[in-house]
Amino acid sequence: MTVSYLGYILAAYAAAAAVVGGLILRAVLDHRAQVRELAALEARGVRRRFRRPEDEA
Amino acid sequence: MLTVLANPTRFMALSGRVLPWLAMAAAGLLVAGFALVFLTVPDDYQQGATVRIMYVHVPAAWLSLFLYLIMAMAAVGTLVWRHPVADVAQKAAAPIGAAFTFLCLVTGAIWGKPMWGTWWVWDARLTSELVLLLIYLGIMGLWRAFEEPSAAARAVAVMTLVGLVNLPVIKFSVDWWNTLHQPASVFRLDGPTIHSSMLWPLLIVAAGFSLLALALHLSGMRTEILRRRVRALTLQQARRSEVDLGHIRASGAGL
Amino acid sequence: MRAFVAIIRRDLLIASRIGGAGALPLVFFLMLVTLIPFAIGPDLNLLSRIGPAILWLAAALATLIGLDRLFQADAEDGSLDLILASALPAELAIVAKGFAHWLTTGLPLALCSPLFGLLLALTPQAMMDVAASLLVGTPALTFAGVTGAALTARLRRGGLILSILVTPLMIPALIFGVSAAQAASVGAASFFAPFLVLCAISLLSIVIAAVAGAAALRGP
């Protein structure tokens, strides 16, 4: 009985691992992309004025 | 506390220090919880080993609601104080909530196959989660529909709160509809009584998942603040080059 | 109050000049009802059993049509700003706009549903139930839509996102509407319990649309 359900349990945990892993991967990659973009902009000499960037939006 | 966090720069500094600890605590709790689940939890007399699916399904269901609550609280912050950090908190919570809602549905379906003999049953709980997923997806779509972040935040905040008011109504309707069409569901994923040897691991796992979600949310907020800085700088650059162009044009006209 | 009536009259006038005042939603409604037998076959027993559900689904879909222009057109020509700047509270202005929209979509659908019920082999009792449930239930559909329309008023392409936002909000009205409408044909439950809940949902969605819509339209 236990063995016959093993596939379902594995599938459920695999789905959980995929979703959580995907979320973590997305968070890391997105963060890196923004950091890189910001560095590139600053390297081009665009500097942040001393006000909150959101004020512009 | 809130006023300290209200400044994005200070928020970045503080969250940067908290985030690693949060992530480590989440990982520790999850490892400990799942070790308990696989080593100590006995098979359920009714559901057999599939009871282990519950340890992913129930935390996912809880987080789907928890992240909606976070989103709703941030929505109040957006509407009342018009604060950019609240906007960011709203935006970062939506995809995480949607992901856990999706996980809840998937694990529910996988659990349903051996229990009900079919992948999907229009069970009241699963159906309500499905509607919640639709609302999450609509909110994420609304974020993308606006070009301007603050206008998007305001519209999404209103939609989130409308959703919050509607969720109990939807839940009530779906429950009612469910009892109308199928008298009683045979199995329930969370039984009325749960033995303490099964409850403790569940609480630990749920706490671990919650901390994980909070860490993801914090990290998402940080990324979103960076994204807004990038956007502001790009706009600034565009404006400056426009001014330069204007100079060139003006001097060209002078010649 | 005069401003309230003026908004309704203006929207009805616009609708009558452009959309034939409720004729087009009705045609769309008829088309949806016509499509179903093509999809599931002309089995009259089956059709009469699911007829109320078909009529309700068609009403929900027909309500979505034209919602995206409800505030968008006013936002584009500037009349929305005038309405918001007027002495009439924005909440009431939204109720007026929604009411006018209902008069040209929901009301004609509810009144003509017995006629379309003939196509679906409904019994006279079922026709009356469907018409009554649509009469009190379509405001819930319309005002769920009004909420979404206010949210997407300033978007240039808000049609699809509007439908995606609004459809989940229509679920409660659909559930109770169909079960009230089916009371006669299926005999599952009494007519009045779901009917009264439907009335409550309609009133609730008017309030939600007024408050949420005003918050959305007053935005930056």
UniProtKB/TrEMBL annotation, chain A:
An individual GO BP term: heme transport
Location of this chain's protein in the cell: Cell inner membrane
Record field: transmembrane: 6-29
Any Pfam family matching the protein: CcmD
InterPro entries named in the record: Haem_export_protD_CcmD
Keywords: Cell inner membrane, Cell membrane, Cytochrome c-type biogenesis, Membrane, Transmembrane, Transmembrane helix, Transport
Membrane topology field: Single-pass membrane protein
Any one of the GO CC terms: plasma membrane
Free-text function comment from the UniProt entry: Required for the export of heme to the periplasm for the biogenesis of c-type cytochromes.
Family assignment from sequence similarity: Belongs to the CcmD/CycX/HelD family.
UniProt protein name: Heme exporter protein D
Species this protein is from: Pseudochelatococcus contaminans
UniProtKB/TrEMBL annotation, chain B:
InterPro entries listed in its UniProt record: Cyt_c_assembly, Cyt_c_biogenesis_CcmC, Cyt_c_biogenesis_CcsA/CcmC
Record-annotated Cytochrome c assembly protein domain positions: 5-181
Membrane topology annotation: Multi-pass membrane protein
GO cellular component: plasma membrane
Leader sequence segment: none
Subcellular location as annotated: Cell inner membrane; Membrane
One Gene Ontology biological process: cytochrome complex assembly
Alphabetized Pfam families for the sequence: Cytochrom_C_asm (PF01578)
Transmembrane segments: 21-41, 61-81, 93-112, 124-143, 155-178, 198-219
MF GO annotations: heme binding; heme transmembrane transporter activity
Domain of life: Bacteria
Keywords per UniProt: Cell inner membrane, Cell membrane, Cytochrome c-type biogenesis, Membrane, Transmembrane, Transmembrane helix, Transport
Keyword Transmembrane among UniProt keywords: yes
PANTHER family, A to Z: CYTOCHROME B_B6 PROTEIN-RELATED (PTHR30071:SF1), HEME EXPORTER PROTEIN C (PTHR30071)
Functional summary from the UniProt entry: Required for the export of heme to the periplasm for the biogenesis of c-type cytochromes.
Record family assignment: Belongs to the CcmC/CycZ/HelC family.
Name used for this protein in its record: Heme exporter protein C
Organism: Pseudochelatococcus contaminans
TrEMBL record, chain C:
Family named by the database record: Belongs to the CcmB/CycW/HelB family.
Function text: Required for the export of heme to the periplasm for the biogenesis of c-type cytochromes.
Localization, UniProt: Cell inner membrane
Organism annotation: Pseudochelatococcus contaminans
Keyword vocabulary terms for this entry: Cell inner membrane, Cell membrane, Cytochrome c-type biogenesis, Membrane, Transmembrane, Transmembrane helix, Transport
Membrane-crossing residue ranges in chain numbering: 21-40, 46-67, 102-122, 134-153, 159-179, 191-217
Predominant subcellular localization, coarse grouping: membrane
PANTHER family tied to this protein: CYTOCHROME C BIOGENESIS B-RELATED, HEME EXPORTER PROTEIN B
Name of the protein in its database record: Heme exporter protein B
A GO BP annotation: cytochrome c biosynthetic process
Gene Ontology terms, MF aspect: heme transmembrane transporter activity
InterPro entries xrefs: Cyt_c_biogenesis_CcmB, Cyt_c_CcmB_bac
Gene Ontology cellular component list: plasma membrane
Lineage of origin: Bacteria, Pseudomonadati, Pseudomonadota, Alphaproteobacteria, Hyphomicrobiales
Recorded topology in the membrane: Multi-pass membrane protein
